[in-house]
Specification:
Radius of gyration: 13 Å
Structural class: mainly alpha
Distance between the termini: 18 Å
Helix content: 55-70%
Number of helices: 4
Oligomer: single chain
Length: 105
């Protein structure tokens, strides 16, 4: 897995961390309790796979397949495409607020 701070798109470094923290806060406010590390892993994997310009369902499927191939699973709650898509939805909102098109992130 690439270091998220070494990623080269516009969503990298401190902005990557700010995005992950902001998504975590939004999910908490919605009553979804997901570890911040999982959010960062989803965002980093999306970029490592070069999938960030695809549709949410395609990104979620690619990230989930990557997690499965590496033996990454949630315990006690499984990591599902729905969980990944929730993160992606909030990522879209953050990118919009930051003025970053998804394909450039």
């Amino acid at each position: 897995m690439a270091d998220p701070f070494a990623l080269t798109g516009k969503l990298s470094g401190d902005l990557f961390t700010e995005c992950a923290e902001w998504i975590w806060e939004q999910l908490q406010d919605d009553g979804h309790f997901i570890q911040g590390e999982l959010i960062e892993l989803i965002l980093a994997t999306e970029r490592t796979l070069g999938a960030q310009a695809r549709h949410h369902h395609e990104i979620a499927a690619a990230v989930l397949a990557d997690f499965t191939s590496r033996g990454i699973a949630g315990d006690p709650s499984p990591i599902t495409s729905d969980v990944i898509e929730m993160v992606l939805m909030w990522e879209d909102d953050f990118l919009g607020l930051a003025g970053i098109p998804r394909h450039e992130s």
